[in-house]
């Protein structure tokens, strides 16, 4: 069967001496693996379609298992995402989050649209830390783990201060969190942002300017939610965390 999709590359694996297998998040066929013949050859016309983070049109034949690329067109190479270490680290984590954080059969147009918006925002120079945090929030929500950040997850109390529990998937008031010293305190600013990020669609996000301290706090909080709810050990995290230590 012949497929014609718009797709974004979230993973590439070398195959033999000359080929690559790419994992695509597509607009109309979910998540698919496609063999790109000759992609490792420098002069291959398909090499650019097999680069990480590339957005393109892919025409492939698939019966069972892997598809095989027939031809394709580049829509956005997103080359900046591979050119800057900090952006690459964030884009790699976003790609892995999409690849492993969402069940294969659940991937649909919404996932494709959010990923596309996230990568194009990064390519336009928007803040990668903010985009990554919003993307993590979207993945949580799309996977059915929407965090409770409006009120205490135990008793419904609306009055702060609150602490975050990644495992409980939300915030706890001071009454309910008194017994647990491992919970993370949340500043008022971070709480507002958690609530805002929950409602944000990446297709509508402009430039959000936040101080480094606030960015650090919010990304740590959302990271705890991702870890507590998804329970995945992400390979790209080391790359990100090591970078964080350098700056
Ligand atoms: Zn409570």
Automatic annotation (TrEMBL):
<dbReference type="Pfam" id="PF11967">
    <property type="entry name" value="RecO_N"/>
</dbReference>
<keyword id="KW-0234">DNA repair</keyword>
<dbReference type="Pfam" id="PF02565">
    <property type="entry name" value="RecO_C"/>
</dbReference>
<dbReference type="InterPro" id="IPR037278">
    <property type="entry name" value="ARFGAP/RecO"/>
</dbReference>
<dbReference type="InterPro" id="IPR003717">
    <property type="entry name" value="RecO"/>
</dbReference>
<dbReference type="InterPro" id="IPR022572">
    <property type="entry name" value="DNA_rep/recomb_RecO_N"/>
</dbReference>
<keyword id="KW-0233">DNA recombination</keyword>
<comment type="function">
    <text>Involved in DNA repair and RecF pathway recombination.</text>
</comment>
<dbReference type="InterPro" id="IPR012340">
    <property type="entry name" value="NA-bd_OB-fold"/>
</dbReference>
<dbReference type="InterPro" id="IPR042242">
    <property type="entry name" value="RecO_C"/>
</dbReference>
<feature type="domain" description="DNA replication/recombination mediator RecO N-terminal">
    <location>
        <begin position="1"/>
        <end position="77"/>
    </location>
</feature>
<keyword id="KW-0227">DNA damage</keyword>
<comment type="similarity">
    <text>Belongs to the RecO family.</text>
</comment>
<protein>
    <recommendedName>
        <fullName>DNA repair protein RecO</fullName>
    </recommendedName>
</protein>
